[in-house]
Amino acid sequence: MKTNLYILILFLMEIGMLVGCSADGIPEETDGNRPGGLTCIRFGLEGAYGQVVATDGEQVIRLETGSANTGENTLQNLTVLQFDLDQSVTDVTTQDAAICVTARYLRAPEPEKDESATEPYYLIGLQASKKDTQYLIFIANAGSAFQNFEGKTLGDFKGVEIPFDQKTNNGENQLMLAALYVPVKGVEDQTIHPVELKRLVAQVHFKYTKSLAGVVDADFTPLSLRLRNVPKVLKYADGITKATDYPEKTAANFTDYTFIIGQVEDGFTWYIPQNVRTATDALPSGDSFHTYVELSGIYKAPNMPDQLVTYRFYVGQGSPGYNVYRNYDYEILPVLRGVNSFDSRVTRRNLVLSPPANCFVLSPESGSEVTFNPYLAPGTDVGEVSVCYTDQVKENRYSRIAAVKTVWQTADGLIDVSFGEGVVRVQPNTAGTNGNALIAAYDADNTILWSWHIWVTPYAKVLDGTGKNGYIYDFGGYTWMDRNLGALNVFREDNNRNLYYQWGRKDPFYDTGKTTVTGTGISSANKGTALNIDESIKCPTVFFTHQSTTGTWHGGTAAIPNLWFSDTKTVFDPCPAGWRVPAKAAWDAYKWGSDGNIAWDTTNSYGAVLTVNSEYSWFPRGVLGNSNMTFNASNTYMWSALCENGFPRTFSFTSSGGSIVNDIAGSFGGSVRCVKEK
Known about the structure:
This is DUF4906 domain-containing protein. The chain is mainly beta and about 675 residues long.
């Protein structure tokens, strides 16, 4: 019996040696020589001071060692990995094969202090070894990612990548790392081994100031701020290996961060992986994978056109090759004094910024273009739905827009669209080809955030007052376009088609029997009874078929009456800037029949004609059916912005007459005749 008790005591003692821990997860300190067993080593941990490189964009103005930022260097948790590797081993292949024999994870560690110690220390339990040294890696603030790493190799550790995103990597809870060789002999060791933890990333801080006194009344308004040519990959191995040319300078290894849109004047701070090279460059260029800050905005000065100006500021100025090192703090603090056209880091072009809208009109000729700010709402948000325009395109200070692309166009090469410098630029063909197109903003997952109709027609010059290919007319107290939205002519013929809109939607549809497109064409689908306004934003090419629960195209319990509104232009209004869907009162002036002012065209049966001041305004017949999107030439529905009792007020005409009616479902594809905003 005594023998069995003695064996049990020895067994429990051995377990204590292997796994005994203090209250905070650190093994209890023990004495004695225990080769191959547990031993406790003292370490003094501190965050290393970062090297500060400050520049005004022209020259380095300060190069110094900064003081440690206590917020950034806070030790939230600590992982210690012990690899069975002696310092005498120099072959990399042999090093990478070394096994991790201890993986110690400490949550919220606190240093110890006793009378014999000259400084606070952390007591770490390691596996004793007969080798002279063991290779230890200290990882701060990685969470529990490595607590089950025992049995894996140093090569495995070097291959671990860290998910990295500018929105989630900030000054809090910074990843820090250190590696060193330490004797782990299993004998009592009162030595406190210093461990200097360094950030795995570099900090880049940018903030500009303006000094435009040289040009009277000049001003600069920022549009966007962006960090470009940023290494995509961050590895824990970056903290234990010295980089000479890393990462490899290929496009696959670099990315551009998303635009900073909000509060650009306040500056911004990024945390990024290192970007180093052996080659030196006197002045880098953007395509050589040097990391740089891009600031874009509008420069205004008297007696000159507005300028879209973009400045480049390269990170790492002051070091050969403009290198970006980990644990460095790069402060870029430029002073903007104007637009220097001789500086290759400054680009500019004349800018006419179009007001926000869901439709932009431009003429198919050289020199014609539309530039607009996609972060400005095209109208007021509708309180009854969950779609907020700002939330669609922005997330706090960040742009959600990753790209703007053409969805469909009625002729190949009709338009060219680009996105950059905080704006969208649309240029038409110069061959005189008219047509319509739909462009959209996409997020990083290729989901559509918003879309815009591009109307390519010489009528654009009529609208801006410089052309005569058409007219606008005053009638019934409103100023009207002489054609429906999307119409390419006003010919009184059967093939004349405009674009068609479901009531309350901003995106156009077309008669698939007469119109062909390149890109992703339109289709129809039953989208169910759940409220799905947000789904319609993501699917601008899908015609939502009729829902009996709401009496219109969207799901829910009832039709939403304020998607278009008589007194206010909403974010869903499909008309160009300065124009809107007409109020019901605007249609009251239209009187049908021989005693009225609008009637079927006497020369053909393809539409109706309104005669104003000896000029005719053509209203082509037709509507898209609400069950299958099929074109129906028997009816014509001209939408108003008023919806009452679940039905939009509509100027409707058929072969037998026309009038304002209130029994047309908003799920039909009707026509829009825009009026000027009052």
